[in-house]
Amino acid sequence: xxxxxxxTSLLRPSILHILRAAGFHATKPAVLDTVVDLAAxxxxxxxxxxxxxxxxxxxxxxxxxxxxxxALQDLxxxxxxxxxxxxxxxxxxDMRGVEAFVKWGKxxxxxxxxxxxxxxxxxxxxxxxxxxAEKQDFLAVLKKKHNxxxxxxxxxxxxxxxxxxxxxxxxxxxxxxxxxxxAANVREVSLKVDxxxxxxxxxxxxxxxxxxxxxxxxI
Length: 219
What we know:
Blueprint: H1 3-21, H2 29-58, H3 65-74, H4 84-90, H5 96-105, H6 111-116, H7 138-145, H8 179-194, H9 197-210
């Protein structure tokens, strides 16, 4: 399974919960796949715009809330709101779009979505869990369900787990003990092959002249 297929499969349950919270009780697979693809494209566009603004604002890829706000403004999510150039010309920061976005996210129309996500206190998310159980997202519960042994090493080195530690690969037999030493020798040999004979001869002559005890090779 490709990485794109894995990410699409991980996004599908979230879209299903959002559709159910919005009042839909059934959908066709083709329609669901279309909505998931639209959501994935939107998130990818938002991420790329946020990274571009981070690179322009502070020359790195560590995102700040300002970078994300500017990306949301590019995508038309913050409205009505003046552009950054208009704010610079007027000398006033327009917060109407941000305030409307926050009000929409915390409004009554999105209460069910927040409940499903477990963001409303004193209300159990879906699926309901025991009071003593620690709140976990659906991905953690799904991983625990398919990993009966409880070992996290099963997902190590995959998109669902931690990165695998790089270990040196030893070569049994031969003059080299590791791939690193073999690669260094290959680079050294390639440099010698790529050097023109005239340069090799001049290098040999210069080394012979600098060391009087070493006789120069015959030309």
